[in-house]
Design brief:
The chain has a single domain (about 10-180), classed as Cyclin A, domain 1 (Orthogonal Bundle), CATH 1.10.472. It has helices spanning about 10-15, 15-25, 35-55, 70-80, 85-105, 115-130, 135-140, 145-160, 170-180. The chain has nine helices and no strands. The chain is about 65% helix and about 0% strand. It is mostly helical. Helix 3 (about 35-55) runs parallel beside helix 5, helix 5 (about 85-105) packs across helix 6 (about 115-130) and helix 6 crosses helix 8 (about 145-160). GO terms for molecular function: cyclin-dependent protein serine/threonine kinase regulator activity; protein kinase binding. It comes from Phycomyces blakesleeanus (strain ATCC 8743b / DSM 1359 / FGSC 10004 / NBRC 33097 / NRRL 1555). One of its GO terms (cellular component) is nucleus.
Length: about 180
């Protein structure tokens, strides 16, 4: 997975929106490509945090989380070596499933924004990547039991009506909308 968030150069050519964002930064700022990519990822993480807080305004938890939502997201992204496009698609899945999630918030797994984000990321990863992780690996990265990862993934797939494909026009519109909210 050479296209990881922390070590990704091939992503630039494959993602015109990311490339335009990076080119729009003044060269006088003298930031490296890695620093620009970090800014882009930070912006995507911020959007993800906002999305999760919008869909799940008051988390339903019986205990205080060990880490903040931002720390949790960064951990998952770092150790799963998630690509920009995978993260963008995962965020799209959260928005696509939002209405059903809000109706089913009291239903177990759907009530947890962190688990639903993880499930959206797993679905996006499995849809986009030729070589993908087994749920045992996602379990290790997330700290959840494999059975909980399986249930979260199945719940997300059901919320998405098992439709992981996104039409090119729709995805391009999504990237344009993301672009307006970045940095």
């Amino acid at each position: 997975m050479t296209d990881s968030i922390s070590h990704s150069y091939p992503t630039l050519a494959a993602n015109p929106h990311l490339l335009s964002l990076l080119l729009s930064i003044e060269p006088t700022q003298a930031k490296s490509v890695a620093a620009k990519q970090k800014i882009y990822v930070d912006s995507l993480v911020d959007i993800t945090v906002q999305a999760i807080h919008t869909i799940w305004p008051q988390p339903i938890v019986s205990h205080k989380p060990v880490a903040s939502l931002t720390t949790f997201l960064r951990h998952i992204l770092k150790y799963s070596r998630t690509t920009h496009s995978t993260l963008q698609l995962a965020i799209f899945y959260l928005f696509r499933a939002r209405t059903k999630i809000q109706k089913n918030k009291q239903d177990g797994v759907a009530s947890c924004g962190r688990r639903m984000f993880l499930a959206a990321l797993i679905c996006a990863h499995k849809y986009l990547q030729d070589k993908t992780y087994k749920n045992v690996a996602w379990s290790k990265v997330s700290g959840l039991k494999v059975a909980h990862v399986n249930v979260a993934e199945k719940t997300m797939l059901q919320l998405l009506d098992w439709q992981l494909h996104v039409k090119k026009e729709t995805y391009d519109q999504w990237l344009s909308m993301l672009q307006t909210h970045l940095v």
